[in-house]
Amino acid sequence: MLRSVSKSFVGVRVLDHIDLDVTPGEVHAVVGENGAGKSTLMKIISGAYAPDEGSVVFAGETRVFRGPREARRAGIGMIHQELTLLPDRTVAENVHLGHEPVRRGLVDRREMLARTSALLTSMGAGPLPVDAPVGRLGIAQRQVVEIAKALALDAQLLIMDEPTAALADHEVELLYALVRRLRGRGIGLLYVSHRLAEVFDLADRITVLKDGTRVTTVPAAETTTAELVRHMVGRDLSGYYPERAAPGDQGPVRLAVRGGGNRKLRDVNLRLRAGEVVGVGGLQGSGRSALARALFGVAPFTTGEVRLDGRPVRLASPRAAIRAGIAYVSEDRKGEGILARQSVLDNALLAARAISGPWSGRAGRTTRMRELLGAVDVRTAGVDQEIRFLSGGNQQKVVLARWLALGPRVLLFDEPTRGVDVGATSALHDVVRRLAREGAAVLMISSDLPELLGMSDRIIVMREGSIAGELSGAASEADVVALAVGAAPGAVA
Amino acid sequence: MVDTLRGRLPRVRAGGPLPILAILGVLLVLVAIRQPDFLAPASLMSFLGRSAPIILLAAGQYFVIVSGEFDLSVGSLVTAEVVIAARLIDGEPARTWPVVALVLASAAFVGLVNGLITTWLRVPSFITTLGMLLILVGAVYLWSDGSPKGELSEQFRRFGRRAVEGVPVLGRVPYALLVVLVLGGLAVMLMRSDFGRTLIAVGDNARAAELSGVRSGRARTIAFVLSGGAAGAAAILLGGYSGVSFQAGSGLEFTAITAVVLGGVALGGGRGSVAGAMLGALTLELLFALMNFSGVSGTVRPAVQGAIILLAVAVTAARSPSR
Amino acid sequence: MSALSVVARRPVPGVYVALVLTAVIGWLVVALRGGALFNQATIVSLLHVAAGLGLVAVGQTLVILGGSLDLSVAYVVSLSTLVAAETMNGGNGALLPGVLLALAVSAGVGLLNGLLIARARVNAFIATLGVGLLLKGYLDSGYDGPAGSTSPGLVQTLGYQRIGPVPVSFVVMLAVAAAAWLTLSRTRFGHHLVAVGGDPEVARLSGVRTDRVLVAAHVLCSLCAGLAGVYLAARLGSGAPRVGTEGLYDLESIAAVVIGGTALAGGRGGVAGTVGGVLLLAGIDAIFNQLELDAFAKQVVRGVVIIGAVAVYARRAVRKGRW
Questions:
Q1: Do C296 and B138 touch (CB under 8 A)?
Q2: How much is the pTM?
């Protein structure tokens, strides 16, 4: 069904000649680490992206879809990671959006309601109020509506991208039953998931992607969790990482969290020592970013206690966190990091300007910042250049310099090297390690397992909003994945 | 590595003052061809003095626009302050200075209210300031029973109509021009300060600014206060120059916005300089003067302004990368 | 995951509760001062006010539901009165051509707005402001005062004819509102429009052609404003170049929409609420008239009501939480 598909974004090859096929009545699971290319692949099949090379063959015909509208009409339904429902519209309206039944020029509401009910019944879903706004439904029910929406145009292929991400355990069971029933009706299903247990529950065949290439496709019955994890990881650790801290280098506890919790986090207990780099692993949505954002006061802890250098602190806002000596590098560099249209220098001085008093701290600041930008090795035609013309890696170095100017005691990094080229990545790693050596406590979230293992003195792994476990820096990729997906560590030996 | 940081690129940045200087130059040439005596020191000085209020309003509007908002109340604020000043002074020279202070303070206060409603109550700024426009116009009519009362003192009016006489080469230098030079200089300095840089940061990416510790609501509110204050200063000059009427500031908010856009400032915030905005005002006034010389009626001004705004926005949209 | 909150879909928007309360309080206050709020003359004039504002506000509802906005409606109203009255030129012969031409010109303005916003991706506020200024320039330069003469036939019917206390124009407004309601609830276009306003990306992924939908909404909005202009031409007997701006149709129509419970960000609300909002604003107006409140005081209160109403809804939107 998919022949040798490739796709690049801004020169980075995200998919490299992928072949994949789904037969009617089959659940074909696609697994892989964050960033393996799963979502891009699904978007190509569903028409949201066009492939650079290769083709999609659907129902015997080679197709080039010029957008989701065409793919939908051809019979490919897609369920995105984020729900695509309008909360203010009714179930029936959402299911039929874009192809409302019309009689004599007017939308035939009765027909629409009837079709929706029939569709939901045929899916075997429980009774749903088809004339109620989607906003009144629970998450699991919305997921059902989302599936009905994808099926409403007689989809023969249904793509599900992490459909259980937001569901509770009993809701997952309902989804399983639904998937099996659809399979029984001869619909082909592409099922993307991180969660291996789920994949074994459902899939007939499993394809493993890694770094944009297809590693293997195997019948589910002929493989094991351990084998899949090996396929998913097992990259050679060729990258260079700076030397870790010796045990004696670590200082006192800088930051301590006891019983921290909020809407996304439960019972977080954490200690960061001066001089150490603590890695945070886990799947997307496991609470990794929520942890950093709680510590930085973006979405603060509502329960528990945070101490900084032994003193309780209230981190109610980013400003409060900054004043307490905490710095945060967001994973969303464009949306939350840089001021795209300002100069390198203005970007670097932002935090210093924001918190300095009107009459203080200005003398020599610009000179010092120029030196700092040089020290973190920013490559630019000049500090007056607009930052948007810099590479991702250089942008990230500027953001780093912004914080270094304040001499922070705790640094929180969320995916600091995402979208950053190899050279800049290595430079960033050096700076992070140097900061730790100079006495800062560093918390670094990364989906890049080699980076996580190479940089961290210790690794905590998050799962479902709490800390699933802690590993030493000598742990293996498999250990991290096993903790993150909730497999028993022994199974992945 | 430090030497790679030293500027090698010439400093031609988008939003810089070069394009507006070029337009200004072209217009000057056109004026020189059409009306050569216009460039004589005397008439040039008087033109600059006349343009002073709109330059001040453009500077004030700049602060608000660069932070990502709009202030549509400044025209009516000018009217209100002129009418208030006339009634309070009522021809008494002794009341001049207290009233000047009151005009500036009350105008800044109106800006404060605009800012707080926009940032605290999260009312879109165009609704806040359009509502304020209604309130100001209504209130000032109400207070003066439908026609302006009292009169401005000669001392008050001198800011807008008198000049330093006998300056070598230039002849008369209007006080209004001096006021603009001083306040404009302060505005440029302010934009180079920490506050100015963070204000632009808020307009560029409020989220990123907040995550770096910037209090964006506070910065925006101050911008509204500055816009109000500038309207107060403009009212003092305008009242002096053209006297008291309910039409004193009518439509000036659009003129100011057009001037700011013409000066290379992006609507929506984050780009452009206050010097550019003020030059934009000067250019716009020169354009109107040129239209005047060419016998074009002043009534098409709004259309010219509308065309400039749409053109500027379309050019920006075409130049910026997709999405 | 955004907007997890449960949004109650009430058949009767809260604005009608406010309407009844206002009526009762207004009646009491007026009665205490020895007047009568609910006599024929007051009701007739209230319904006339509501007819004009209602037509504009119904159109405004469509664009706001779609996540856009139209600030040019006031100028479209004025333009339409002139096109209609000048084409008719006092005779009944050109009645229909006059009406059709006025509507066609209005639709053209809407098309321009829509293309600027949907295709050129200019911010709706700026695009419609710019187009508004273009129209203002045309009106200011072309007209000093009333021009043209409306067909007597139209004046007698649409302008003044009544069914009991209910003016024909009010019935026309209700018919247009009903048509808009039917469009929103029972046509594909309506469903798609609300989806675009709710989340353009979701709409696109669901196969909605978002650009077309938005352009069509702007054409309909301007048509509604054009129809309001035809009505005002019938009411005034001639074309009036400033009737739209003096009637504050831009701000008041947006206010009526917001008071009627439609989210300013789009995607939620409807015409029924807007009609309530229109009646509320017209009712307040009638009460002020009965109290013989000064026209200027009325304007102050209008400004406060508009800012206050938007603030209430803006705060509610924040509480309901987008994140």
A1: yes
A2: 0.85
